[in-house]
Every structure is written in structure tokens, then in C-alpha cells.
Amino acid sequence: MICLSLWCTFAVYTGTVTTRLRHATEHFRQYVPGFAVATATAIVAVAINSIVPTLSALLLAIIFGVIVRNVKLLRSGMEAGLAVVSKRWLRIGIVLLGFQLVLTDIARLGWGVLATVVCVVALGIVTSVLLGRMMGVSPTLALLIGCGFSICGAAAVAGMDGSIDADERDVATAVALVVLFGTAMIFIAPALVLGVGIDARTAGVWEGAAIHEVAQVVAAAGITGGGIVKTAVVVKLARVLMLAPVITLVTLFATRLGVQPAVTSSARNVVEPFSADTKLPTVSMNNSSVTRTKRPPLVPLFVLGFIGAAVIATSGIVPAQGLTAIKVVQTFLLAAAMFGLGCGVKIAELRKVGVKPLVLGLAVSLVVAMVAYVGAVLS
């Protein structure tokens, strides 16, 4: 009798586990098409970047995503996977980005340069928020523009998108402006440096503190020449380090800034980590199935991971080959996430945005460039 009871219990348990595994497998299948196209596109973007380093893999991936969406190559079966890629993979990529930061290299820049970095980030964001309010630009878009232009371009926009409840049209607009003005700076900055006759150290600090994307900094510094690339990149990475405290502060003071913090959904999403946001951000979501919400942590987990990665990189326990491999994975994940974000961009909707964000982007670019130049000269 005992043996029969044990056998029945085992049979029921095995059947339950098998059923759950079958359901989990079927559930996962809906994400495979999106994962596959994002992976393939990221590989292509990274490959092109390895051949032409001045072409950022992240920006290429965004462009590919925009093309796929707007020439109607995107299939509905891809949306669930791309939604996961643009959120989950993005956060993992930002954590791995921390391994690029060696805090001792940043400390060697000196207090003057570090103060310049802080001023660039702070004044860039404050200018964008206040001027955006005066111009009637949405608080979310103004904040995204300020972060993208002041910290680290598209990665900062995407990172902030993971911490606040941002409309994806605002995200797409901010990224597009980063691409536009950052690309322009690749040519404008070297022309100004060479035309005015700025010395090498000042030029390196200025370009690193003024240009939006890391790849754009490398491109501009390479055109300028004079061995300023390393200085420019280290200064730029110091700005990247500001991503963590800025996200934390925005999370704390979101209401005062006129934005909504990202909301963590119910326990259902903890049990089923791929169940949230199964459509691309441009599609309206029906949240009727979510019965409880909770306030997000004051410091998002991926920000803590970013800081932890920087500390580990600084400790020197990860060999150079390991850091190189991590950078490849990080670039791949961010490129895939950027493709997912690009697939959420509808050009027809962007045309409705108007010229105000463009003017705001120009104003913030000028403020960032001027503050960076004053700091570079004085440091």
C-alpha cells in the first residue's frame, strides 16, 4: 500500500513537472524569432564595426532596426523576443559596460578634469530639463536628451529608459538626436581644434567631455591626431561612470522632474522572467493581467551591477583577455538591444514631433561643448 502511494505521488509529481516544462518550452518559443533576428543583426553590426571602427556598432544596429520597421520587414512573431532584447539584454549589456572603467585611470585625470566631467553632466541635464520645460517639450524627452548628450549617448538614453516610464517615441527621438549631433561633432570638433590651434591635452579633454558616443569620441580624436585618443577616451569613460549616480538620482526625484519611475510588475513576472512586455514598445500594452505593482528599488539592480563591474575591473583580477571577451559580449548585447529599440521607431510618428526637440538638442550640445571647453582650458 505504501509503495502504491509513493508510486502515485511520484507519477503525479513527474506529470506536473513534465507539464510545466512543456508549457515553459512552448512559452519560450514565442521569443525565438525576435532573439534570432536581433542576434543576427548584432553580429553584422559588430562585424562592420571591426572593419570600419569609426562606424559605431550600436548606431548601426539602431539604423538597421529603423529600416526593418519602416520598410515593413518586421513580422508580428518577432515582437515578443525583441521586447525582451530591448529591455533585459540592454540591462545586462550596461552591467558589462562597467568592466571598461578602470577607476584608477579616471582618478589620474586630476580633480580639474573630474570637476569638468561633473559640470558637463550636471549642467547638460539641468539645461535640457529647464529649457525643455520653457519650450513645451515633454519632461521625459527633455530628460532623455539631457542624459544622452551629457553622459554616453544612446546607451545613456536606453539606460534611463530602463529606470523611468518613458514613451518609446521619446526614446527614439532622443537616440536620433544623439546620432545627428554626435555625428556632426566628429567633423566639427577636429576642425575647431586644428583651426584654433588648441594644444593636444586640452583638445583630448575637450573632445572626451563634449562628444556624445564613445565611438564618436574615438573617431573625432583620431581625425584630430596628435596622440589625443587615449586622453579623450578616458575622459569619455569618466562621463560613462556618471550614468549610475544620475539614474539613482532620477529614480529618487522622478516626480519632481515630472517623469514616472519604471514600475516593477507583480510576482508573475518574477516567476516568468520573459512574460513582461511581450510586444515592442510602440504597441499599446494591456496591463489588465497585472494585479499588483510595487515601487522600484531606489538604486536599480543593473546600476549596482554596473558599479560592481567597475570595481572588479579596477581590482585587476580579470585578465586582459577576459576584459576583451567581456567587451565583445557587451557590445553584442547593446547592439542587439539597440536593434530592438530601432524596431520600435516609426518614422511617420517621428515627423509629428516637430522642431522643438531639434532646437533643444542643438542648445544642449552647445552648452555641453562650451562647459567642456572651459573646463578643459582651466584643468
Average of per-residue pLDDT values: 79
Give the strand tally. 0
Number of helices: 19
Low-confidence stretches: 264-279, 281-296
Distance between the termini: 85 Å
What's the order of the H and E elements? HHHHHHHHHHHHHHHHHHH
Rg of Cα set: 22 Å
Structural class: mainly alpha
User: Beta fraction of the residues?
Assistant: under 5%
- Measured as a percent range, the helix fraction is over 70%
The dominant shape is: globular
**Largest sheet properties:** none
Structure in a nutshell:
With 379 residues, the chain is mostly helical. It has helices spanning 2-29, 32-51, 57-70, 79-97, 103-107, 111-135, 139-152, 154-161, 168-196, 200-210, 214-224, 229-241, 243-252, 254-257, 268-271, 301-315, 320-342, 347-350, 356-378.
